[in-house]
Amino acid sequence: MGEAELNIKNRELIIRSVICIYGEAALPELAEQIAQDIASHWNGPQAKIRIGHNDFSVRFVIEGRYTPDLQPETVWHNDDPKMNFFRIEEFVMGNISFVDGIGCNTGYFKLDNLLQTSTTAAHEYGHTLGLRHPLITDIRGKEQPGIMYPRGTICDPHFQYNPDAQPGTPGGTLNPVHRKVTSDDIEALRLDKLLFNEKNRGKVGAFTSVYHSKHSPPVV
To answer: In 3-state terms, the chain is what percent helix, strand and coil (to 5)?
Structure first.
């Protein structure tokens, strides 16, 4: 989720988001890394959108915050669209990072996912802004995978975990490290349809406001 600022003078649309992390695997340097990963990927296309009769450059300003003492009430009662809250732990039920909806401001990240590739946080951030996984996940012949393609996507061999593996077999699916934010991903946000107030501020995404308790492995 983010707050959009339409800067008429500079012809710039700025999306500001603050990523607050908590949980036993959260660390100050991880908050900084997540923010840098998201900003790097989403600013990669250097995209422009047309609003009215003018073109605006799109820029993402992402801040990471380590909030080890975060209280549930802070999440429940937050009304600032910039604020996002993610628990980070080594164990996650389902063994995969997730957010609490398409267009949201909360979720639960598995530490290994974040450490394996810089695209995990950027992918989940796309969900918070309202993007879904593409319906077609066999993209052979289409080259560059966009940021919202999920794990398990069938792609051209040089984007696979193992370029020599048969498509769809172990090693024969998309290695998330190869995902990138493309101009199509920016277009899919439909930022030209945002509603702005008298201060030229708007909202991207929605409040889910879920504070997550720590998941525990099942007792065997």
So the answer is: 25, 25, 50
